[in-house]
Design goal:
With about 325 residues, the chain is an alpha/beta fold. The chain folds into two domains: about 5-65, no CATH class; about 115-320, SGNH hydrolase (Rossmann fold). The protein is about 50% helix and about 10% strand. The chain is built from ten helices and nine strands. The protein has helices at about 5-30, 30-40, 45-65, 70-90, 125-135, 160-175, 205-220, 245-255, 270, 300-320; strands at about 115-120, 140-150, 180-185, 195, 200, 230, 260-265, 280-285, 290. The chain has a five-stranded parallel beta sheet with strand order 2-1-3-6-7, sandwiched between helices. The chain has a two-stranded antiparallel sheet with strand order 4-5. β4 (about 195) and β5 (about 200) form a beta hairpin. The model has no long low-confidence stretch (mean pLDDT about 85).
Length: about 325
């Protein structure tokens, strides 16, 4: 064999060796990221194969404390603000059963003291928050801070629940001091993700338990500064695999546990037909049929977001937060 024919093979072997060393080094230095990557693989052989690599690499990294430098660097980059948020925010405590409800709105907003609304959730909230900005922001007595996150979900493993999600909620509470937190979520909970290495079957018992636990914990952090929560039900979707009715059972249970501090809003009262079922289109003010839901039957067009925003405005007025515009 000539030297010329050996050279490409040697180069390929070196590149392969370099890639393996890079992957091994990254796995040892950032085992949490590798765990999240493995948990996010499709269930079956792909996730099993990913864990064959991730589990022993993570065990070795933590045993030798190889992940400590990167953790310390991440804490440093997070900055003092995150530490301030963690120390300044004390999660609210659920009221005891049978506690008498109090007045929802302790004040009526004015232009001098506008109602501060924090909007959180997944990509559904991204659509909705723009509707709130169109419908509510023009009011002088309302300020909307939209923080919907594309791809987010309570069971999506790409965000660390403690270090990323709850810390971010604490930071938002400190920065915005919301009077009201509005929530819409549920577009990404149907995937067969794993959480902390535990496979969650959508619709299963543990799936419901994890969703309830995280919904309850999120509410406690959102209410740390006394905010009232308005939680929209997840809109029914064209594809039944999104399990929206199952999700809404969980959201209702979590809301009920907080008594008068959380109001559940039925999104299908405006997005659904007369029976609350999924609909693709609606009849507009002109009498013409117009699209209501987007191409894949998950998200909604601007007209839907605007209707949901007006639905919220009606609740805020009925509860005493807002007066006539």
């Amino acid at each position: 064999m000539t030297e010329t024919s050996r050279t490409p093979r040697r180069r390929a072997a070196r590149i392969l060796g370099l890639l393996i060393l890079t992957l091994l080094g990254a796995s040892l230095l950032a085992p949490d990221a590798v765990d999240s990557w493995a948990d996010g693989r499709d269930p079956g052989w792909e996730r099993t194969l990913a864990r064959v690599w991730a589990d022993p690499a993570g065990d070795l990294a933590r045993r030798l404390a190889l992940d400590v430098p990167l953790r310390e660097l991440a804490d440093l980059l997070d900055g003092v603000g995150s530490e301030v948020a963690r120390s300044a925010v004390v999660p609210a405590v659920r009221p005891e059963a049978g506690t008498s409800p109090t007045t929802v709105a302790p004040l009526a907003a004015t232009s001098e003291r506008p109602l501060r609304i924090l909007a959180v959730g997944d990509s559904l909230m991204l659509d909705l928050q723009y509707g709130m900005e169109r419908e509510l922001d023009p009011r002088m007595d309302v300020v909307v801070e939209g923080r919907g996150a594309l791809g987010f979900g309570f069971t999506v493993p790409h965000w660390d629940w403690e270090d990323d999600v709850l810390t971010d909620y604490d930071r938002l509470v400190v920065e915005i001091s919301p009077d009201v937190v509005v929530v819409m979520i549920g577009a990404n909970e149907f995937e067969e993700y794993a959480v902390n290495g535990e496979d969650l079957t959508p619709g299963g018992r543990r799936w419901r338990e994890v969703l309830y636990e995280r919904a309850d914990e999120a509410i406690a952090h959102w209410k740390a500064d006394g905010a009232h929560i308005y939680w929209w039900t997840t809109p029914r979707m064209r594809d039944k695999r999104f399990l929206t009715d199952d999700l809404n059972t969980v959201w209702a249970r979590a809301s009920e546990a907080w008594g008068a501090g959380v109001t559940l809003i039925d999104s299908m009262r405006v997005l659904g037909d007369v029976d609350g079922a999924y609909r693709e289109t609606m009849v507009g003010d002109s009498g013409m049929e117009i699209p209501l839901r987007k191409e894949h039957g998950v998200h909604f067009h601007e007209v839907g977001a605007d209707m949901l925003a007006r639905q919220l405005e009606a609740h805020l007025m009925a509860d005493g937060w807002l007066t006539g515009s």
